[in-house]
Specification:
Helix content is 42%, strand content 17%. With 195 residues, the protein is α/β, with parallel strands linked by helices. It binds adenosine monophosphate.
Length: 195
Amino acid sequence: MNQPAFSLCVYCGSRPGADTAYLALAERVGEWIGRHQGQLVYGGGRSGLMGCVAQATLAAGGRVVGVIPRALVEREFANHDCTELHVVDNMHDRKRLMAERADAFLALPGGIGTFEELFEVWTWRQLGYHDKPIGLLNTAGYYDGLLSFLQHATAEAFMNPAQMALIRADDSLERLLPTLVQAAGLAPAAQLDAI
Ligand code: AMP
């Protein structure tokens, strides 16, 4: 593959989670990216959902850009299978490079690292630092509690509906991924049928 059809930055857990449905989802996301001749940008580790989405992207023929801080190379098992693996000085450089290399952002289930990355690109977007689409894949109801809290924050006037509208939350991969890629002004190379 020369030029990828799109570049999707995926934030997700460095752990596998309690339910195998999460790993299965990460694998399907990677397959979707590879099958549509896309590029995954992610944190560059082999552990948890992160490793799973990367290996599935590669297995399906996609490109993978991993970005990992030097201090986490051992802790998160740096993935030397990546098409490009960037070892950077610190977490700020990691997140900046990941954001620069992405056409769109997608969060899968994860922990505080995932939350922080999602909220950072969301706040950057509302401040106008970028205009890239942001998606939240709410599989198995994992983010139901967060989404209802955000509705509460909106009802209590600490957020407004326009801010909420900057995130597309969906429980369907087949709906959300094409929507994000198209909102970024790009089109997946292959058919958009379900995988
Ligand atoms: P987690 O969702 O906690 O399993 O973390 C997923 C990824 O987010 C890991 O690669 C973490 O290194 C990364 N991450 C990014 N920013 C942070 C942060 N401020 N605190 C913890 N992890 C972070």
